[in-house]
Amino acid sequence: MRTLTVELGTRSYPIHIGSSLLNDPDLYRPHVRGSQVMIVTNETVAPLYLEPVRQALDGLHVREVILPDGEVYKTLEVWNRIFDALLAERFARDCTLIALGGGVIGDMTGFAAACYQRGVDFIQVPTTLLAQVDSSVGGKTGLNHPAGKNMIGAFHQPRAVIADTDTLGTLPQRELSAGLAEVLKYGFIRDAEFLDWLECHMTGLMSRDPDTLAHAIQRSCEVKAQIVAEDEFESGSRALLNLGHTFGHAIETGVGYGEWLHGEAVGAGICLAAALSARLGWLTEAEVERTHRLIAGAGLPTGRPADLAPERMLELMAVDKKVLAGQLRLVLLKQLGEAVVTSDFDRDALAHVLA
Q1: How far apart are CA 222 and CA 215, in angstroms?
Q2: What is the pLDDT confidence band of residue 230, given thresholds at 50, 70 and 90?
Q3: 182 is an active site residue
Q4: Where is the 3-dehydroquinate synthase C-terminal domain (predicted)?
Q5: Of these residues, 54, 159, 185, 224, which one is catalytic?
Q6: Is the same domain home to 55 and 154?
Q7: Number of domains forming the structure of the chain
Q8: Which of these, 239, 287, 240, 291, lies nearest to 268 by C-alpha position?
């Protein structure tokens, strides 16, 4: 097991990464302050991993709520089922929620924990690659709205993250590729050496070599933990983690939640960001081509959906959390391994890239 720490003073918390962690009581018990635990999971994950987590919590008052699986269910209506379960069982303020699943479950559970009785503890137990390297770390929680992705939410840090790499063995290949988009993102924004390593080890990642995956997860979490410690509430450098996301969220909203996986949309968004960066004179065409090879090598799309018009993309991008004073801000690449947040780009160049 490898353990990292997200350094946030008195709210610092561990990220445990390794094999056979789900049923280890020593990883949960230090972070459960009361006796009541609500496990939130979905219909896909529950038959696979609910029982090992319950075993680790033996002796506590454990209940579960099982939600439908998919991005399309990341809504206020489905989210409310968590509160129905908590209130039906009369859970108190010292209860703990456990998010057992991918990014959707993590986001919904974290937001419920932020809101229930004005804030209770929760533990992230991510079971997808994307959740293990990104959404489980950093305290971003939220829900989707028909007008925009993740527009309703709160910052609420977990007490711990328990990333059992064994769960990746049951992950569909498409979901694995979606997670690799976020892994690649860390190399693009801050670690050119890691990007080189990913390029050399993509075959091992795609074939799920355990040691290769473990290193990729560890390095991704190291980069994210460092950035979150620098800027917990995204007032500065944390926005760099959104490389490809403004484009990607527009794709997800435009085609309908769940049609494209989040990582697929982010992969295409990274390619679009690279193309715009080249038009600003920051990247060479060779670097744009390398970006496309890396994204495609992970089994991801490299451009917007053919049936999503550029004009519609622009409309959806205008509904983005990084818009300030009416100005759209994008995360672009000064070079591979160095990103910047900027509103100083030519709108015609953006329109050309989208077209």
Answers
A1: 10
A2: very high
A3: yes
A4: 179-323
A5: 224
A6: yes
A7: 2
A8: 291
Whether 140 has a binding-site annotation, put simply, is yes
Residues 290 and 198 in one domain: yes
**With 90 as the cut, is the pLDDT of residue 326 above it?**
no
Known catalytic membership, residue 245: yes
Q: What is the pLDDT of residue 321?
A: 74
Q: Which residues pair with 164 in a beta bridge?
A: 18
110 lies in which domain range?
A: 2-170
302 appears as a binding residue in the annotation: no
Assess whether 118 carries a catalytic annotation.
Answer: yes
Shared-domain flag, residues 163 and 29 = yes
Q: 95 near 37, Cβ under 8 Å? A: yes
**Which one from 175, 234, 252, 264 is the annotated catalytic residue?**
234
pLDDT at position 238: 96
CA nearest to 183, candidates 107, 244, 142, 233:
244
Domain boundary among 148, 170, 192: 170
Which pair of tokens denotes residue 61?
A: 């008052």
The pLDDT of residue 322 is above 90: no
Half-sphere exposure of 167 (CA within 13 A, CB side): 29
How much is the mean pLDDT over the chain?
97
Q: Residue 323: what pLDDT?
A: 76
DSSP H/E element including 128: none
- Residue 231 gets the label, from left (phi > 0), alpha (psi -120 to 50) or beta, of beta
Q: 158 and 191 in one domain?
A: no
My answer on whether 16 and 150 are in the same domain is yes
Specify whether 245 is located in the same domain as 130. Answer: no
Any catalytic annotation for residue 238? yes
CA distance 281 to 256: 34
pTM: 0.96
